[in-house]
């Protein structure tokens, strides 16, 4: 059986001026981590998926 792995990359740049901005940044980062994303570097996260169907479901989140 052959598998075709894919990576989903998330690049983002959120403002960090006010306390609310920092809170939203932390909430978004926690959301990514809880959903299985791994940090490559600051504001760049990735997740390995098995097929395009899984990728489409992640894009809809």
How would you describe what is shown here?
The protein is of the alpha+beta class and 61 residues long. The protein has one domain (6-59). The protein has helices spanning 19-34, 52-59; strands spanning 6-11, 38-41, 44-49. A three-stranded antiparallel beta sheet has the order 1-3-2. The protein is elongated, with a radius of gyration of 14 Å. The model has no long low-confidence stretch (mean pLDDT 90).
Overall number of structural domains: 1
Number of strand elements = 3
Order of helices and strands: EHEEH
The Cα radius of gyration reads 14 Å
What can be said about this structure in brief?
Helix content is 39%, strand content 26%.
Element layout with pairings:
Elements: E1 6-11, H1 19-34, E2 38-41, E3 44-49, H2 52-59
Antiparallel strand pairs: 1-3, 2-3
Keywords:
26% strand; three-stranded antiparallel beta sheet; 3 strands; alpha+beta; 61 residues; single chain
